[in-house]
């Protein structure tokens, strides 16, 4: 994909659906339940698959309005919101897992120089101690 195309779609790369079963198989389902957050949820397909496989309640945030609407159709308005993840409000340490597939691009203003790295660092606060941060790196 060309850089211009990547910029046009906001650095959005959906995690391939065909890889979701293999990813889900890396963890056993939670016996006690819990919550799974995707702060850059796209259309929510990955979050839906992983939450069902792991017996977790899904929570989604997506910046793009069309993709956020797809999330709200999947999860409802109390579990899916549209907005900037840096403005997202959630309880610190509330999630047993964070699935993070952030936009991929350079960040000239940040200290990390990559947007995805700064987003993963930002999302870490929502993770419980001993929770799992899952970061899709392409």
Structure overview:
This protein has helices spanning 3-8, 20-24, 45-54, 65-75, 115-123; strands spanning 35-38, 57-62, 80-82, 95-100, 127-135. It is an alpha/beta fold. It has a five-stranded parallel β-sheet, sandwiched between helices. α4 links the parallel β2 and β3. It is globular. The chain starts with a helix and ends with a strand.
Present the secondary structure layout.
Blueprint: H1 3-8, H2 20-24, E1 35-38, H3 45-54, E2 57-62, H4 65-75, E3 80-82, E4 95-100, H5 115-123, E5 127-135
Parallel strand pairs: 1-2, 1-4, 2-3, 4-5
On the 0 to 100 scale, the average pLDDT is 88
> Number of DSSP helices?
5
Number of strands: 5
Radius of gyration: 14 Å
Please outline what is shown here.
This protein is α/β, with parallel strands linked by helices. The protein contains five helices and five strands, in the order H-H-E-H-E-H-E-E-H-E. The model is unreliable at 4-8 (pLDDT under 50).
């Amino acid at each position: 994909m060309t850089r211009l195309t990547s910029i046009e779609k906001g650095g959005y790369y959906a995690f391939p659906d065909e890889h979701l079963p293999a990813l889900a198989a890396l963890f056993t389902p939670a016996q006690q339940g819990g919550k799974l957050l995707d702060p850059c949820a796209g259309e929510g397909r990955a979050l839906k698959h992983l939450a069902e496989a792991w017996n977790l309640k899904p929570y989604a945030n997506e910046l793009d309005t069309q993709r956020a609407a797809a999330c709200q159709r999947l999860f409802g308005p109390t579990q899916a919101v549209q907005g900037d993840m840096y403005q997202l409000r959630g309880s610190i340490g509330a999630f047993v897992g964070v699935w993070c597939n952030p936009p991929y691009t350079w960040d000239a203003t940040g200290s990390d120089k990559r947007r995805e790295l700064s987003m993963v660092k930002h999302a870490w606060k929502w993770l419980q101690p001993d929770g799992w941060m899952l970061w899709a790196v392409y």
